[in-house]
Each structure stands twice: as structure tokens, then as C-alpha cells.
Amino acid sequence: MLPPDSNLTRREVLRTMGATAAALLAAPSLANADDAATTITIAPEPLFDLSPWLYMQFMEPLGTTDGSVEASWDHLQQKWRPDLIAATQELAPPMMRWGGLFSAYYRWREGVGPRASRKPMHNLVWGGVETNQIGTAEFLDFCRQVGADPLMCVNFEAEGDPRWSINELGEARSGNAQEAADWVAYCNDPDNKERISHGTREPFPIKVWQLGNETSYAPSRFKKDWAIRKTVEFSTAMRKVDPTIQLIAWGDSGWAPEMIEKAGEHFDYLAFHHLFDPGAPLNDADYSRDPATTWAVLMGSVKKHERKLLEMRAQVERTKTALALTECHFTMQGRNRCDLNSAWATGVAYARFLNLHERHGDLLKIANLGDFCGTRWQTNVIMIPTPGGKSYVMPVGKVMALYRKHTGRQFVRVSGGPPELDITASRTGDQFFLHVVNTHRTRAQTCQLTIPGFTAQSGKAFEIATDPMAELTSAKDDPMTVRERALVIGEPLTFPAASVTAVELAVRPA
Fold first, then answer.
1. Of 383, 405, 427, which marks where a domain is finished?
2. CA-CA distance, 189 to 171, in Å (whole number)?
3. Per residue in 436-445, pLDDT tens?
4. Each residue of 324-367: pLDDT tens digit?
5. Which residues contact 52 (CB under 8 A, 6 or more apart)?
6. Distance separating alpha carbons of residues 169 and 401, to the nearest angstrom
């Protein structure tokens, strides 16, 4: 298991944790939770600020494969579904991203103005037809209702892919730098005549924009040198309209160093994606027959995600360029695309990803886990049952909401504790926060907690714990509700098996 807040080997863990902990690790069959309590130590000095955008959500119209945006909108009432709004408010996303592959053939003017005159479009990746009844104004209204900052992906000349530049009907679907700049003006310019003519006098203040979605993942898309040239061109045009906007350029597949060298002054963040399959036996419906193996594969997946983060860090470390993980999730197959995502075991695995994101929060400033909403594809953070039914938050959303609501502003170091506990810590003033993932499937873990120089006055734990194979399939039957409990100061803390816990501690100087 990954030791808390480190990449230590088992041998190093034994050496640093002392004889008692070493004995427990050497004889795990005897190391019950009641046998001993090891100590978690929080170093109180802040190391760096944590971005609230580490819990960003990503909305993309997924067409006939998922019916995501069209299913979210009540076309008869011409408004967002109230149950989706309520579920999203529970999720409390700090940022919502509009785009994805869809942005490569999305023409934003088709989704503004009077709804009766909006032109439908063919969804070239996901299939079906999008009505464009949900466009810029509607997306920004959604962001306002749920309290999220908007992030827009512009059409980056169809990522250079001729399949998207002109569709089979002969329609031009590629957007140039001027079109992107016009979109910035439409949203941000207080005097924009086009927006005002559509009945909206006040601007839509969108401060973060992404240039395309993912440019390096196919031979048919832009080559690196051309993408760098286009990054400069788009940035220049968009910032001429509003110099205050923040821009995200593409930096995956080894592009980051050269993108920084040749265009670094033209953007604020470098984007990368990480969508991956953690491996067998998770690609069929039999994962529940071998819970131990399924659990081991999911817990081990954190190493693969860590390698991706370290790969990106290595490319930007010299310049300290901020990173934006604008898409990330498992891509397991199954009886209904990625069905294991409905199980609590996956929620625990994603909590470990969130801990990794916090540890890399000095450079990682925007991060995502999952597609936002839809009717079928279970990489979704929120599921929309059809026909009818109440929207509900999936396990990945459960842990994102838990962390989002109980996280400090500044990252602090944490050490010690049982090796089965994956722990991060943060603080805001005299309040400290722990995010604790018990990676042991069947055994609780108990430990003491200390903060040198401080005395705890009160504490609470907010905890999700259930059978790892329990599935969340409706809003009515939810085995993953958050349980709140008061902590007894001075007493050991116990974390149930396969649990994710957020701890809040109010302290005073000792």
C-alpha cells in the first residue's frame, strides 16, 4: 500500500516507523486495530495553497451514447431539471468545464440567441443530433445556480483533424482564432452588441478558457509545431479582447517543454488527460465474485496515476508552469460501460487519486475525476435515470463532495500512522483537516493524532464506509451516505475498513 504522503518503499517505512510499527507490519495477522495505536503527526507549517479547482466537473454533450446534456434539460419547461440542480448542489463543484471532444466541431453561435432560431448540430463523436437549446447562456445559468466558475473550451480549428473540420454533409465545423475571440467578447465585453441584441445586457464573466480539448492523441490532429503556432495565434486574438482571461494550452504526450519554451507567455496552465483501465479482472461482470482481487487492482491503480502526475511534473518543474488535469477517469468495460464505477470500491480508489492531487497541488491547480452527468455511461459523476427518476451522485462524486466541503486552504505535511492509511492534511488558520483513506478492505485502523505546537479543542469526522462491492443504483437506495461523528479529544481515532473520512480539528496554540 502507498504510505501516507510519500513514495517510501516497505523497507523504508519499517525503518522510519520504529520497532513497534515494524513488528505490526511483519505480522499483519496479529495486528488487529485494538492491539496498538500508532501516531499520525501533522507538521503545521503551510507548504503551498490548494486550489479549489481540484474538484472541477466536466460537462460534455455525449449524444446518443449517453444523452447527457439533452437529458439534463427540461425542454417543455425550458430549464434545467430541478433534480439535477439539487444533486449538483450536493456535489458543490467549484468549476464546471464545457467542451471535450465535442468542442472540436462546436460552433458557439449556433447555441446563442432566440431558441426558436438555433440550428441543431450533428454530434460527430458521440452520435445523434444536439438541439443547441443548451448553449452559452444556459450553461452559465447552470454555473450560477450551483455556484461554480465556468471554464470554456473553444473550437481550436477542429484540433487540426479533417474528419471534424467538414462533416459528411459538407458543413464547415472548424472554428478559427477570430471565432474564439468573438466568443470571449460575447461573454466578457460589457458593451457587446451581439449579446445585448439577444436580450442579455450584463456580461457573462468567464475568466478561464481552454484552447481545444486534446490535440496530440491522434495522427490526424495538429502536429506539435503547428499546435504551438496556433496557441500563440488564438491567445493573441482572445487576449486582445480581454487581457485578464486565463488560458489553458495543451501539454500532454511530451509536448510541455517545447510548448512552454515557444509559447509559455501566451498561457497560464498546461492541460493533460489521464483516462485508463486499471486492468483485469475489472473488464467483465465477474468482479464481484472476487472482491479481494478487484480491491487489490483498484488500490494498486493509484501507482499508475501517480506515474502520470510525476511525468507531467518532470516536464514543467523548471518553469513551475501550472497544470490542469481537465479529464481523468477509469475506462473499465462491463455489462453497462464502466459499471464497476457504481461500486464503493471505486469511490475509495478515486479518493486516493484526490489525495495524490493534493500532494501535487503546488503545481496541479485544476483537476477532474469523471464526466459530469448522463443517463448510462457510469464514468459519470451524476446519473440521470430514464425514463423519470431522481438524479443521484455516484461514488466518485461522493468522495469529491466530501473533500470539497472539508478541505483547508493550505497543504501541510503529515507523517506516520498505519501504512494502510493513505492520508493528506491541510489547514485554514487554526482549523486542520485530514483526508484519510483506509486501504484495507476488511480491517479498521486505529491511531493517535498529534500537531506539534497545538492542542486540539474539538473535532468531527465525516465518514463514508460500506461494503466495497455495494453499488449505488438509485437516489432511494444509497449505502454511501456521509456519517458525522464528534471526536473525543485525546482518544485514538478509528477508521473503518474500506472507508473515506474527512476530519476537522479546531486547535489552539499549546
1. 405
2. 29
3. 999 999 999 9
4. 999 999 988 765 667 889 999 999 999 999 999 999 999 999 99
5. 94, 95, 404
6. 43
